[in-house]
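Think of the structure tokens as a kind of shorthand, similar to the way a musician reads notation: each symbol stands for something richer, in this case the local conformation of the backbone. In the example below we present two proteins back to back. Begin with the first one, reading the sequence and then the tokens, and try to describe in your own words what changes along the chain.
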Amino acid sequence: MSDIYSAFRTKSDRIKLSEADEAIYRPRDEEVKSENYIREMYFTFSGGEDSRVTLNGEEHSEGYPVLYYEENNCYAKRVFTTQYKYYIKRGPRGTLLNPLDMYDEGKYTKVAHGLSNVKYSEVNKKAFMHYITFLKTKNLAHLRNAEREAI
């Protein structure tokens, strides 16, 4: 017994595994910058960034470390809808994530029952600025100030 789609499926229609990566559309970095930098910016720890930019989106060697896409190593993000909103990832105990902390290393990516143990929480601009400065400089004083402001 054949289904209605059997006429459309042939061996020649199948794509080889080696060709699969080329068949997937991935936007170029220039496209991502032009579209997403205006609406969303994803901040990461210094050393793992795709680029360094100022907060207005201009590339600068002394800027903040950012990613083009939201990934596991994204710790903060700025979103623009009608106004800017600022988000920072919090760990399972409600504290701001510290990528330098050796005791919490590796716990941030664990997923139980399809739910991650880290979540973004909205914070004020001052706490956000302290946190992304911590991500840039690795100075724990900025993390502590961000925790105080985010309460």
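Once you have a description of the first chain, move to the second and do the same.
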Amino acid sequence: MRLDARLAPGNVAGPPADFVPYRFIVSGYPLSSLSAHRALGELSPPPPQAPLFAVKEGNALLVYLPPSTPAGTYTLTVLTPEGQVISTRFSHSR
């Protein structure tokens, strides 16, 4: 998994317009096999307000950070139903 892009807030349909979207590309695992009934990922350290997640365009995982998220380095982790752990670090700035 790797960070592909930070998108402009309000540029992606779905989340609140002030959430900051990041697009991650996941290779080697079909994101479509993840259940919509569980969180698609988690951030560490956890931000004060929960982020939103969405799978778009095949293996692109979108993470929408709330405007209250402090600047800093975060680790995004995805746990597959088979127990495989996929993670990457990225920097968030306001």
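Compare your description with these statements about the second chain. The chain has one domain: 2-92.
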